[in-house]
Amino acid sequence: MHDQFEIRPLIYGSDEYRAALALRDAVLRRPLGLKLVVQPGDESDEHHLGFFLNCQLVGVLILSPRGPGEVKMRQVAVAEGFRGIGIGTRLVRYAEEYTQRLGYEKIRLHSRKTAVGFYEKLGYRKVGTEFLEVGIPHFEMVKELK
Questions:
Q1: Cα gap 91→87, rounded to integer Å
Q2: Tens-digit pLDDT profile for residues 68-85
Q3: What is the DSSP letter of 27?
Q4: What is the bridge-based pairing of β-strands 106-112 and 136-144?
Q5: Which helix H or strand E contains 9, and what residues bound it?
Q6: How far is residue 79's CA from residue 40's CA, in Å, rounded to a whole number?
Q7: Residue among 93, 97, 107, 99 at smallest CA distance from 140
Q8: Domain residue ranges of the chain, discontinuous segments joined by +
Q9: pLDDT in tens, 4-36
Q10: pTM score, two decimals?
Q11: Which CATH fold topology does 5-105 show?
Q12: Backbone dihedral angles phi then psi of residue 91, each to the nearest 5 degrees
């Protein structure tokens, strides 16, 4: 990737946050025939990260504090047409570094079954058995940060 990119936190309630909501809806919900519904204030205590390519928001994820030393990574989304070029990998690695700077030691996530291999390549491991979430198969995965 030779274009200009930047990964950074998004301010809750900002125009960039609203763009992230639209991206999450387009990537994670509309293909399932669903609509992303977020009530005002629901995500105000979470860490929103955005991946910008040539000043365009093309990737997002959320880190939700879950207790002492642990966050849940959720709503990882990369825009159609920008997949397979390393954006997801860079975004997750940035999130891991960001998480460590905040003092957390573990990331937990619910991976769609189709994305398990992606997370395994990044050092995440499955815990438990397959379950349904938003109507599709998922696995809980975890990574201890060192």
A1: 6
A2: 899 999 999 999 999 999
A3: I
A4: antiparallel
A5: strand 5-10
A6: 24
A7: 107
A8: 5-105
A9: 999 999 999 999 999 999 999 999 999 999 999
A10: 0.94
A11: Aminopeptidase (3.40.630)
A12: -65, -45
Structure tokens at 37: 């519904």
Residues in the chain: 146
Matching residue, tokens 């937990």: 108
Which token pair is 45? 């205590």
The whole-angstrom separation of Cα 115 and Cα 117 is 6
Q: Is 12 exposed, middle or buried (0-12, 13-18, 19+ CB in 10 A)?
A: middle
* Angstrom distance (rounded) from CA 146 to CA 144: 6
Q: Report how far residue 6's alpha carbon sits from residue 22's, in angstroms, rounded to the nearest whole number.
A: 19
Answer for the pair 133, 114: CB distance below 8 angstroms, yes or no: no
3-state helix vs strand vs coil in the chain, percent to 5: 30, 40, 30
Distance CA 133, CA 131 (A): 7
